[in-house]
Write a structure and sequence with these properties.
Its cofactor is FMN. The protein contains 14 helices and ten strands. With 356 residues, the chain is α/β, with parallel strands linked by helices. It has one domain: TIM Barrel (Alpha-Beta Barrel). Strand 8, helix 12 and strand 9 form a beta-alpha-beta unit. The N and C termini lie far apart (39 Å). It binds flavin mononucleotide. The site of flavin mononucleotide has 24 residues, from helix 2.
């Protein structure tokens, strides 16, 4: 960590510091959303509109943040979302993230488009719980090879991302002339494609299957040796379909506002999805979570846990493994503080009545 890191006391501070440290291209890629970035902005604002209803004179002398996700114990209801190409933020990339997540006692999701292989991540943090994010490819042999790598390397679940049959139009990338820097690779993809050397983001999306339907998903889930979560659900209708087609969990997500601009903030659709699935599977949410109070808002609306995307990249850019560790520790402290002041001794105590 840089010596002058003492003034980084919130995730927003990390974002500001990272902005000054990253090259304009990678910063544009990491920070940007699609189109006018309406959804990107709304994602953060919507959490702050949900007002909290704290209860007084509850014993909060011993607040615990631990919970379980699909039966795996984690130290807090905050997991790491899959984000591509983390080596652009720090040379250690996903391996630093994996070590920081494991040290914090929480779970990391590795992107299909990661710049470190599943094997590298597994050996960097052998004890850390991890999920593998998958894009199902036109040539099923490729996505199968990726699932095989995940299974071989001890990943506990496969998170199938369903909101990106094509990439969103991200204008910051275009304006910054962003392209993946020389020397940064997506090894799981190149290995699955049977080649060496780099792959561009556009090339990658050309192999993703845009014809995928719920029946394909059902077949995939039935054959997959690991539990399958569906990431990118934004309606109650699709929540119910995910249950019917064999999902073990749902991530309510707008891909951080990077896909369809104009969709609602995830904070505003979470409850609709939770009600539609009616307790039949675990529901997670991501998008714009930057504060412990956002974490408890999500819990009150029925999420099992939240995932954070960009703040991990800002931590990496500022201080590699230590930077990610600091981001996670800040959010853990804020979550514990928010629980206590809300009158909850643990995530399990948070109820719908704790928010308006
Ligand atoms: C730079 C970047 C790359 C991402 N790459 C992926 C990816 O490869 N697969 C995926 O499912 N989601 C990807 N996402 C979406 C995240 O998993 C997550 O949904 C989103 O970042 C959450 O919003 P937040 O950044 O506001 O926390 C990416 C997001 C960002 C910002």
């Amino acid at each position: 960590m840089p010596e002058d890191a003492a003034d980084l006391v919130s995730l927003n501070d990390f974002e500001e510091r990272a902005h000054g440290l990253l090259d304009p291209g990678p910063f544009a890629y990491y920070s940007g959303g699609a189109g006018d970035e309406q959804t990107l902005r709304a994602s953060r604002e919507a959490w702050s509109r949900i007002t909290l209803r704290p209860r007084m004179l509850v014993d909060v002398g011993d607040v615990q943040t631990a919970t379980t996700v699909l039966g795996t114990e984690v130290s807090m209801p905050v997991l790491l979302a899959p984000t591509a190409l983390q080596r652009m933020a720090h040379p250690d990339g996903e391996t630093a993230t994996a070590r920081a997540a494991a040290a914090a006692g929480t779970l990391m999701t590795l992107s299909t488009l990661a710049s470190s292989s599943p094997a590298e991540v597994a050996s960097a943090a052998p004890g850390g719980p991890r999920w593998y994010q998958l894009y199902i490819t036109r040539d099923r042999a490729i996505s199968q090879a990726l699932v095989d790598q995940a299974v071989e390397n001890g990943f506990k679940a496969v998170v199938v991302t369903v909101d990106a049959p094509f990439p969103g139009r991200r204008e910051r990338d275009l304006r910054a002339g962003f392209s993946v820097p020389q020397g940064i690779d997506a090894p799981a993809i190149t290995a699955a494609l049977g080649r060496t050397g780099g792959v561009t983001v556009e090339e990658f999306f050309s192999i993703v299957d845009p014809t995928l339907t719920w029946s394909d998903l059902e077949r995939f889930a039935a054959e997959c040796p690991l539990p399958v979560l569906v990431k990118g659900v934004m309606t109650g209708e699709d929540g119910a379909l995910a249950v019917e087609h064999g999902a073990a969990g749902i991530v309510v997500s707008s891909h951080g506002g990077r896909q369809l601009d104009g969709v609602a903030a995830t904070a505003d659709v979470l409850e609709e999805v939770v009600q539609a699935v009616a307790g039949r599977l675990e529901v997670y949410v991501d998008g714009g979570v930057r504060r412990g109070v956002d974490v408890v808002r999500a819990l009150a609306l029925g999420a099992r846990a939240v995932l954070i995307g960009r703040p991990v990249l800002w931590g990496l850019a500022v201080g590699g493994e230590q930077g990610v560790a600091s981001v996670l520790e800040l959010l853990r402290l804020e979550t514990a503080n928010a629980l206590a002041l809300l009158g909850c001794a643990s995530p399990q105590d948070v109820r719908r009545a704790h928010v308006d």
